[in-house]
Amino acid sequence: MEVMGGKWKSCILYELEKGSKRPSELHRHFENTSPRVINQQLKELEIHGMIEKTIFPELPPHVEYSITDDGRSLIPIIRMLEQWGDSFRPKMTRILEKTETTE
Amino acid sequence: MEVMGGKWKSCILYELEKGSKRPSELHRHFENTSPRVINQQLKELEIHGMIEKTIFPELPPHVEYSITDDGRSLIPIIRMLEQWGDSFRPKMTRILEKTETTE
DNA sequence: TCATATACGGACAAATTTATCCCTATGTCC
DNA sequence: GGACATAGGGATAAATTTGTCCGTATATGA
Predict the structure, then answer these.
(1) pTM for this one?
(2) Under 8 Å CB-to-CB from A62, ≥6 apart: which residues?
(3) Backbone phi, then psi, for B53, in 5-degree steps?
(4) B57 CA → D8 C1’, Å
(5) Which residues in chain B are closer than 8 Å to A81, comparing Cβ atoms?
(6) Is the C-beta atom of B33 closer than 7 angstroms to strand D?
(7) Span A43-63, pLDDT tens digits
(8) How many separate helices (H) and strands (E) can be counted in chain A?
(9) pLDDT for position A98
């Protein structure tokens, strides 16, 4: 949970599993989240070896993040969670309706 | 993640999947965690319909928590996470050694 | 009467996570 | 020069989660 539990980590892994991406692409993809926050999640994923950072020594700077084999080994779990969430969402919606009532 | 991501939730589901238990049994099982915290997690799991609470109208009070079908549907995911964690733990240990260095 | 057991929860503190604000630096185009 | 793009991070605030302390109530047994 420490490795994949961050608020955006599973989403980032999910995106990178489809192909390597530059930071700016990821920032555009998560438009409702500040770049800073995504960078933090990327850094932790990198420290844990779930993703890899490649720096192309060019100007302007060019960086790419790609998923590693260890990161890819989390994808089946992420998909299971996704499917479970999809199937449970209707019930969850009803639960939230009961709880939040106006408030 | 909101449903099963709590610090003790997957552990509680794991225990209840083995059989219904009384709150005091669970408190004894998680001896390093205060009963209050376990109660909070139980309450949330109950609200989300992952566990069920049965009150026996006796004195002294007798309560039992049991896992529901929805809760049971999370068990395969919890097991996958457990297996992934077991297999990744050696690498994780090395990563933590590098990071924490004395500090 | 006092200690134990059952089960629960309010008020608060501590810790952790997430988010915002603003700054660095370099280069291109108008 | 000014606007934009690239990639990044320090300082700090806000929000959430986790944990502690102490209280409720009832009943049993020493």
Answers:
(1) 0.88
(2) A22, A55, A56
(3) -115, 125
(4) 62
(5) 1, 77
(6) yes
(7) 999 999 999 999 988 878 899
(8) 5, 2
(9) 74
